[in-house]
Amino acid sequence: MSGAIGGELTALARRFWSLLGARRSHDTLNESLPDNVLQLKVTLLEVEPPVWRRLVVPAGITLAKLHRILQIAMGWTDSHMHAFSAYPGWGSRGKVSVLARALLKDEKQATLRDVAGEFKKWFYEYDFGDGWTHEIKIEKAPNPEGGVSHAVCTGGARACPPDDIGGPPGYEDFLVGLADPKHEMHEEYKEWIGGTFDPEAFSFEKVNALLKRVK
Question: Angle at CA 136, nearest 5°, toward 133 and 139?
């Protein structure tokens, strides 16, 4: 076994025991979950004012489907790799996360109920280059009789940053430059985004119309 692979497996083993410890702690174990529906608060980290969404979703959906729901609800274009992880930043650590997904459940098999039964919050990472991390928290959920047939966005604020803007620091620079006609990058940013960009814009109607189509 090469040193690189051995190091990855050692790191994976350490991660397994840390996850096991987290699952046993009172702070992370999530008890008394409703059987049919969950309410999630999704917040994009390192962006101020916060960009967030509140979603009511069927508890039995797979993580693969949750990925598609998050892309639509937030406003991303699904143009990059992603990962779900128990801690922020872990999913982007190359081969270690690939090995973990190979040894544990695949996203097409693991359900939201599986994860929610173990953690009160976890993380969804998108675009490992830009480094967007979303915190997903389980909130006290309504439990409508019969459940829900598809994800519904019930709350939210502010527009999602554009893809490929350079992560939180790049987004901050973009907003400053776009707002100031005298900024040296103003015209370039304006041309790149296609005219205008409103960081405060958010539409329940548009998001929910698209969520109905998620398979």
Answer: 160
19 confidence band (pLDDT: 50, 70, 90): very low
157/154 Cα distance (integer angstroms): 11
Residue 92 near residue 124 (C-beta atoms within 8 A): no
CATH code for the domain defined by 3-159+200-211? 3.10.290.30
> What pLDDT band is residue 144 in, cutting at 50, 70 and 90?
low
Contact status, residue 101 vs residue 8, Cβ threshold 8 Å: no
> Is the overall model pTM greater than 0.85, yes or no?
no
Q: Which sequence spans correspond to the domains of the chain?
A: 3-159+200-211
Cis peptide bond prior to 144, omega within 30° of 0: no
Strand, helix or coil at 186? Answer: helix
The whole-angstrom separation of Cα 184 and Cα 198 is 20
Phi, psi of 187 (to 5 degrees): -65, -40
Decide if 64 contacts 107 (C-beta within 8 A): yes
Q: Alpha-carbon Rg of the chain, whole angstroms?
A: 19
Q: Give the C-alpha separation, 136 to 88, whole Å.
A: 11
Cα–Cα distance between 33 and 39 in angstroms, integer?
10
